[in-house]
Design goal:
By secondary structure, the chain is an all-alpha fold. It has 3 domains: 1-60, 434 Repressor (Amino-terminal Domain); 81-259, no CATH class; 265-318, no CATH class. The protein has helices spanning 3-13, 18-25, 29-36, 44-54, 58-62, 85-111, 114-124, 131-159, 164-167, 177-205, 208-215, 220-255, 262-293, 296-299, 302-321, and strands spanning 81-83, 171-173. The longest helix is centred in the C-terminal third of the chain and has 36 residues, at 220-255. Pfam families: HTH_3 (PF01381). It comes from Desulfitobacterium hafniense (strain Y51). InterPro entries: Cro/C1-type_HTH (IPR001387), Lambda_DNA-bd_dom_sf (IPR010982).
Amino acid sequence: MILAEKILSLRKSNGWSQEELAEKMNVSRQSISKWESAAAIPDINRILELARLFGVTTDYLLKDDFETAVYSGADETENYIRVSLQEMNDFLKNNATYGSRIALGAILCILSPVLLIVLSAVSRAGIAITERAASGIGIMTVFLMVAGAVAIFIISSAKMERFEYLENGNFELEYGLSGIIKEKRAAFEKTHVQRTALGVVLCILCPIPLIVAGIFRASNMTLSCFTALLLAVVSVAVYLFITVGTIKGGYDQLLREGEFEPKEQERAKRVSKFAGVYWPIVVAFYLGWSFLTNNWGITWVVLPIAALIFAGVSSILHSLER
């Protein structure tokens, strides 16, 4: 039995029309017709895809002396989704937008106490507003900004649900796409390194104005303004980290490299479980201490310290798994 007859037989045994098989293979119906009539022979990549799609061995398709279908037993391959060039571009575009929105939500969270800090300093200086009004306006702003951030997180995640199969690794790239993705990632690498380095520098330098102000015993108003400035600079750094990290992560996800390798994904799941318990406790402690003492100019140190501890614990979990 020749290849053309095998394709025809397997298609009919699955109950598919030529149009349905063509759609699954991302080719035209005319191509299927030519394959089945022996007017054309599919290339090796198409043959591999046919073997995965029908669940048979490539030997069965390629060797004429096989008369009976030899199944590979890899039923799970039928569930693989084939990623086309259009699907790849849609994912990368949506992923970049997703990163920008998540970064915006993070900025809202970081900047949420800024107005409270500034208004508290203004009220203590006896300028234009009472302490009760300053606290009320500031706390209301904190809740509104955090609520806005949560809404952004939920909506953005919902828009990426159509690409959930990429997270599970349940996909197959069309021929040639791997090379295109690697080229795009290589072209982006310079931007990734530059923006990451800038974010690190900003994080290192941002406390300097506040430290200098403390050394020279500046007024509470000055300290509060410098604290607000520190949070603003940190928010810029976080924006840089998230946006470039998300874009690079998109390339790695399609290539199943870096943090998206199977072993790394298992580690990420464990770290994610830890984060799900750790960060709510940190936020609750931060807000509780802040509201009880009303000293937002000091309590902010909880967040960077918590971030350092989280990074350390994550590294330990990674080392233990190795």
